[in-house]
Backbone:
């Protein structure tokens, strides 16, 4: 009997992981925007084409990456957010597993431009289907710009599984709204097919809710605040006369 258990090649393992991490364009948007927040950005731009199927671009003014980090971030389980097992019990970041970038690079055409604030030149990495096509020095703004083109281009079965553009855009907007509400101190913009959908300046939580959901919410919101030895709770609830049958607009954010 010959041995039948083999290690999967990295490219295959990344494509399998991609199915778990990135189900649709909204999943990639969530991972990239959360990375930008973890990088300390206070200005984040999201640019989309064809509801993220043709292009998802996230531009931030965060800490940026070194030449080595720019390449390393596409390796599986490569992360800046934990160092040892004990760190899992004190996580202060959105992500920590180091799977998202490797997964996205396995099923899309990715261009990463990044520069640390103290560096004169940045780095540009082009990667396609887990294969690095080029890495070179480039001129770019401080922070990181990452473009994901043709999501699932090499896994047609998954691409066919995607819904129509309006449905995928709705999923993206849901993710975008959640992140924007959790981080009112960050300036966000969202562009789709060169049209600006959201322009959200850094502000208070109440103003962020109004900017996202409409001016009519100004009269509906009731502030809630409670500080005990066990929990600190703050936010807004709607007045009873504006209650809805569905729970679509109920958002509970734990530790931001």
Residues:
């Amino acid at each position: 009997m010959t041995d039948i258990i083999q290690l999967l090649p990295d490219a295959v393992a990344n494509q399998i992981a991609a199915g778990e991490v990135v189900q649709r364009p909204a999943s990639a948007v969530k991972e990239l925007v959360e990375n930008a927040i973890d990088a300390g950005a206070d200005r984040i731009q999201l640019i989309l084409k064809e509801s993220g199927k043709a292009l998802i671009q996230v531009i931030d003014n965060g800490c940026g990456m070194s030449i080595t980090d720019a390449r390393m971030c596409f390796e599986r389980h490569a992360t800046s957010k934990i160092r040892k097992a004990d760190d899992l019990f004190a996580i202060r970041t959105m992500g920590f597993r180091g799977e998202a970038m490797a997964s996205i690079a396995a099923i899309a055409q990715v261009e990463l431009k990044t520069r640390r604030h103290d560096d004169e030149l940045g780095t540009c990495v082009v990667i396609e289907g887990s294969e690095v096509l080029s890495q070179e020095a480039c001129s770019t703004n401080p922070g990181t710009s990452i473009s994901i083109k043709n999501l699932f281009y090499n896994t047609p079965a998954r691409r066919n599984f995607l819904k129509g553009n309006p449905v995928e855009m709705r999923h993206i907007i849901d993710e975008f709204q959640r992140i924007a509400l959790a981080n009112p101190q960050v300036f966000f913009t969202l562009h789709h097919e060169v049209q600006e959908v959201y322009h959200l300046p850094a502000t208070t939580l109440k103003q962020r809710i109004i900017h996202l959901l409409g001016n009519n919410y100004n009269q509906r919101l009731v502030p809630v605040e409670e500080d005990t030895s066990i929990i600190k709770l703050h936010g807004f609830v709607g007045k009873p006369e504006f209650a809805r049958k569905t729970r679509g607009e109920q958002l509970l954010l734990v530790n931001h």
